[in-house]
Amino acid sequence: MIQESDIVHILSDHSGQFVSGESLANLLGCSRAAVWKKIRHLREKGYPIEAVTNKGYRYMDTHEAIEYRVNTILSGQGDAFFKVKYFDRVDSTNAVCRELGREGAQEGLVVGALVQQQGRGRRGNDWLSDHADGLWFSILVRPETNAENLGLLSLVMSLSVHDAFDAVGYTGSAIKWPNDIVSLQTGRKICGILSEASFEDQRLSFAVIGCGINVSQKAFPDSIESKATSLFLEGVTHVTKELLLIDILAAFKKRYDEFLRAPSEMLCDYRSLCVTLGREVRVEGALPIIGKAYDIDTLGRLIVRDANSQVHVLSAGDVSVRGIMGYTDVR
Ligand code: BTN
Predict the structure, then answer these.
(1) Contact call for residues 316 and 154 (beta carbons, < 8 A)
(2) pTM for this one?
(3) What is the pLDDT of residues 274-326, one digit of tens each?
(4) In this structure, is residue 331 part of a structural domain?
(5) Domain with 16 in it
(6) Predicted confidence (pLDDT) per residue in 139-190, tens digit
(7) How far, in Å, CA of 317 to CA of 323, rounded?
(8) Which residues make Cβ contacts (< 8 Å) with residue 197, sequence separation at least 6?
């Protein structure tokens, strides 16, 4: 008995290309008529499969398709935590996720979009995402935790992205404090994370953790060309946004559960992946500080010692840290 999800997998693996009815029938060990019957049913459900005589079937990479596939695969894996909503275009997935959070959406909501018209970066910067070459998404969580542990949530996401990169075979990335994922080879940024929290009567109501990953860009505008890179440019050409999202969500669930049990337990992994440690850094602020980054404390803050041996404890939201030896910061 052939499964509709098998057809979906095969077609999405060939996303954008036609696969003939005969090839599908051979791969699935059934007749072409049986393939057509299943495809008709998928199309009736709104599944975006194009059928062209003498060419075969083609999967269109629309937001509905991504949403359907990710939710189907997650529930097939027995995952009941995440519920993905994928939009064609939004201003910012963080903004939509916040809005849904305010309306009472459950934790585990994931809001993704093909295009963001006003993607937001840290410290009030823009995040270039007005095209579909990246994975732009936000996760809603409602942890019962102290407000002071909130900074660690972004670290949960950066570790999860790093885990997922490993899972798809890309082992050349590292974390730049607080939560940029950069290429070890070039120091350029592949992924940025923006977390926002909402409080009610001094208590955390929910947090939104937004993540932007450059997936298939082949070039960047001049303004960020020297600082940004994509998985494609780093040689990772086989990965699709949805498979990456599934791997990130799987890793996130594990890391988030660990965070709930013991918030600072992840720091051992984090320290070993954080390339900022041990380096000279320049901290931008009212009074710039130059010093050596030598530790991450239990709240995820960076500890820097300057030339006068004065110790500075830096929170992610407060400052921008630039490495001195050709190490980059992208916004
Ligand atoms: C940074 O400045 O490094 C953080 C960038 C975060 C970008 C992501 S893309 C998805 C989510 N929605 C947004 O508007 N921003 C985050």
Answers:
(1) yes
(2) 0.84
(3) 999 999 988 877 778 889 999 999 999 999 999 999 999 988 765 666 664 44
(4) no
(5) 4-59
(6) 999 999 988 898 899 999 999 999 999 999 999 999 999 999 999 999 999 9
(7) 17
(8) 147, 150, 204, 206, 207, 208
pLDDT in tens, 114-129: 999 999 998 889 999 9
Q: Which of 89, 211, 224 to mutate to test the pocket of ligand 1 (most atoms within 8 A of CB)?
A: 211
Given 235, 256, 273, the domain boundary residue is 273
Phi/psi of residue 56, nearest 5 degrees: 115, -140
Cβ–ligand 1 distance for 212 under 6 Å, the answer: yes
DSSP string, 88-110: EEES-HHHHHHHHHHTTPPTTEE
Residue 95 within a domain? yes
The answer to whether 331 and 125 are in contact (CB under 8 A) is yes
Q: Give how many domains the chain has, as a whole number.
A: 3
Whether 224 and 77 map to the same domain: the answer is yes
**Domain containing 288 — which CATH number?**
2.30.30.100
CATH code for the domain of 13: 1.10.10.10
- Report which residue type is found at 300: G
**Residue 133 is part of a domain; what is its CATH number?**
3.30.930.10
Cα gap 101→235, rounded to integer Å: 37
Would you say the CB of residue 121 lies under 6 angstroms from ligand 1? yes
Same domain, 309 and 186: no
